[in-house]
Design brief:
The chain is built from eleven helices and nine strands. The chain has helices spanning 2-18, 33-46, 64-75, 86-93, 99-125, 138-142, 155-159, 184-193, 198-201, 224-241, 294-307; strands at residues 25-29, 50-56, 80-84, 131-133, 174-176, 250-264, 267-280, 288-289, 311-316. Bound molecules: xanthosine-5'-monophosphate (XMP).
Length: 329
């Protein structure tokens, strides 16, 4: 409506007034809605003095890098450098099984990579970038700390991985947070009027540490990540085909690092299991497991065992939050 168009004009003006005519701005794109809308807005205001980086940490979903890069480049014409850091991340994660340790390693590695990107850019430009764009939303600003003793990092702490604290002091980057007064549905509306594809704006949330929190234990062992990607893709496509994607807060597959016996054809198998997780929620703080149709589940189970080598069993997670969390780690 007219209201969000006014917000857009207002935001563009603020960005133009803030960023000097020779200033350059950097932004880390996660592939999520918030950073994408924030970058699109800044790009509209200052053009190619915005420089974005998208980091492939080796923990992304099936074809995720290709898909988001296509949206960035073809739909949004954003200037994006795609950094393939798969090897760096996975070598650091080798043998690591403790969930919080995995998160910390991923967060630190991200800082290193983004830091190197910023310094390379400085060399190329012959001057330091002046600003860093972040997709902070209003709820992130007002959100309180995670419950004491929960041992979990919540979104505000998590986003600090991506913020100025992780960059070298000599950069002295100032923050631009153009979404910090908006709620999620307003961000989607703002994205829509700037031409961000609606299917992109409706994507389920995805955690920063990626598939690492969906492979309990060592993520680098065997081809766990590939097995998980294939099963997850089948699950998500089936959900989209059934027309229920928008009724679900989050849906994903989880790799079960446990070998069980099965029989496929006339072969005895000793393979892994996949758990399916789908929840409804308002804000991710509490969640209910989603009631699928039995026929849908039966077909899905058959497909996953037939199509994903190394899987002979499919489980359904029927736990709400609390007592469980949405992710498995
Ligand atoms: P949990 O598993 O705590 O997840 O019930 C709640 C919501 O937060 C997401 N999540 C994360 N997001 N970094 C993120 O950016 C993280 O480390 C992280 N852990 C959980 C989760 O996907 C869900 O939407």
């Amino acid at each position: 409506g007219w209201k969000m168009e006014d917000v857009l004009e207002e935001e563009l003006k603020i960005i133009k007034d803030t960023v000097g005519p020779d200033d350059h701005v950097i932004c880390a794109l996660s592939g999520g809605v918030d950073s994408t809308v924030a970058a699109t807005l800044v790009h509209k205001a200052i053009g190619d003095r915005l420089h974005c980086a998208f980091v492939d940490n080796g923990l992304l979903r099936f074809k995720e890098r290709e898909r988001v890069m296509e949206t960035f480049e073809k739909d949004l014409h954003l200037p994006v450098t795609c950094i393939d850091a798969t090897e760096q991340f996975l070598s650091k994660l080798k043998g690591v099984t403790e969930p919080e340790k995995k998160r910390k390693i991923i967060g630190n590695e991200f800082i290193c990579i983004f830091d190197a990107y910023a310094h390379d850019l400085e060399k190329k430009l012959g001057k330091k970038p002046a600003y860093l764009v972040q997709g902070t939303l209003y709820p992130d600003v007002i959100e309180s700390c995670p419950p004491p003793g929960s041992g979990r990092t919540h979104s505000h702490t998590i986003k600090s991985h991506h913020n100025v604290g992780g960059l070298p002091k000599d950069m002295k980057l100032k923050l631009i947070e153009p979404l910090k007064l908006l709620f999620k549905d307003e961000v989607r509306e703002l994205g829509r009027i700037m031409g961000v594809p609606v299917s992109f704006l409706k994507r389920h949330p995805f955690p920063g540490p990626g598939l690492a929190v969906r492979v309990p234990g060592d993520v680098t062992e065997g081809n766990r990540l590939d097995i998980l990607r294939k099963a997850d893709e089948i699950f998500i496509q089936a959900i989209k085909d059934a027309g229920i994607y928008d009724s679900i807060w989050q849906a994903f597959a989880v790799f079960m690092p446990v070998l069980t016996v099965g029989v496929q054809g006339d072969q005895r198998t000793h393979s892994y299991a996949i758990a399916l997780r789908a929840v409804t929620s308002q804000d991710g703080m509490t969640a209910d497991w989603y009631y699928f149709d039995y026929k849908f589940l039966a077909d899905l189970s058959t497909r996953i065992c037939n199509e994903v080598q190394g899987v002979n069993r499919v489980l359904l997670d029927i736990t709400s939050k609390p007592p469980a969390t949405i992710e498995w780690e």
